[in-house]
Each structure stands twice: as C-alpha cells, then as structure tokens.
Task: structure prediction
Amino acid sequence: MTGVEISEVIRNYALVAAAAGGVGIAFWRALAADRQSRSQALQVEQSRREHVTTIFADTVGRLDDEKLHVRLGAILTLRELVEAYPDLSRSTVDLLTAYLADLDYGDAEPPPDVREIMSIVIPRLPSGDEE
Amino acid sequence: MSVHNPIVPSDGRSLRLVGAFIRRTNLDRASLRGADLSKADLTGATARGADFKGAVLKKTVLKGVDMTGAKNLTLDQLAEAVIDENTRLPECIDRAALTQKMRARREKLL
Result:
C-alpha cells in the first residue's frame, strides 16, 4: 500500500468518525430541544390551569350575590368556561345543581337564574324522538 | 332563554338533582335518564314527554306536575314519589294501580 492510499484510508476513517460524532451531537441537541419544549408546554398548561381555577373560583363566589344580574352573569360565565374547557363540565353541572338545592322561591314563577340553570343542565330529547 | 346547548358532562354520570327546588320549571322533553331526583321539589312543573328511564324519584314531590306523554315511567318509580290529585300522569300509568301500590308501600313501611 502506498503512502497516498494509506492517507486516503485514514482520511475516510476520520470522515466516518466525524459524521458519527455529528449525528450524536444532533441527536443530543434534538433531545434537549424536546425536553425544553415539553417543559415549556407543561408550564403553559400549569399557568392555564391556575388562570382557569382563579376565574372559576371568582365566578362561583358571584353565585351568592344578592343581585340577580350578578348571579346570571356568573351562570353564563360558567357556561362559557365549560365551552372553552370541557374538562370543567362535571364540576360545573354539579355546582349548578347544588345551587338549585339551596333555593326556595315559594310558589312563585322560577326566577331567571333558575330558568337559565335548567336550560344549561337539563338535556332535552330531540324533537320527533318517539322512542 | 339560553341559546346554548345544555352541558353534557363527558364522564357519562347521570344528572344529580337531589333536593333541587325546581317548582314550576319547564322539564318538557327533558332527558332525565338515570337522573337522581330524590327529594327534589317539582311542584307545578311540566314534564310533558320527558324521559324518566331509570330516574330515581325517591320522595320527589310531583304535586301538580304535568307528566302527560312522559316516557319510561314505571309504577315502582312513581310509588316512591309524592303525588296529588293534580298530578297528571302519563297515559301508560293506571292511577288506581298506582294508588294501590303506594298504599301497600306505606303499610309495609309502618
């Protein structure tokens, strides 16, 4: 084997080694980027949960207000929250039905907040359903 | 009146209206399948064409409730509820049989 051939073999091995190292570094960087992206997503989700929990708690507090329009606003806000965050649906329905158990409007017509809650929590049969 | 669709929780659990004070409310064509209405007060409500399949009506006050055309209501369910002469029962329920069943139930409890 001549000196030129030997140098070519060495060069080829060096290239292969460099390529392997490059792949390793790229893989490591991809892993790091993935970890960072997951961590950011987790932080965003945590901050979203905290924000929603705060809104939810504030809104629930307004259900106790003596003014009807404030209570109605709270009920509608809860409805909107569930549209945006369906995972809150069970707790919202339970909360609103508990609200109904805490009332006594005598023999009068049901007040608007009760009617609104009924329209929110009671599913209706589709018209024409004769099952 | 709300323009939204009702909230349907994704966990599949039935509605709990235990002790709810919902006098004179509109339950027409309501789907109350499996709903727990124990001790709820529905006095004067309308529940025409509502579906009561598997609904729990233990001590539910149904005085003056219009249940014309209600579906899947049984004597056993109604015998646990509180009704009066103004309660309008669905056509499939025989009032005399219901009265008898309620009387028998009361005697059994005494």
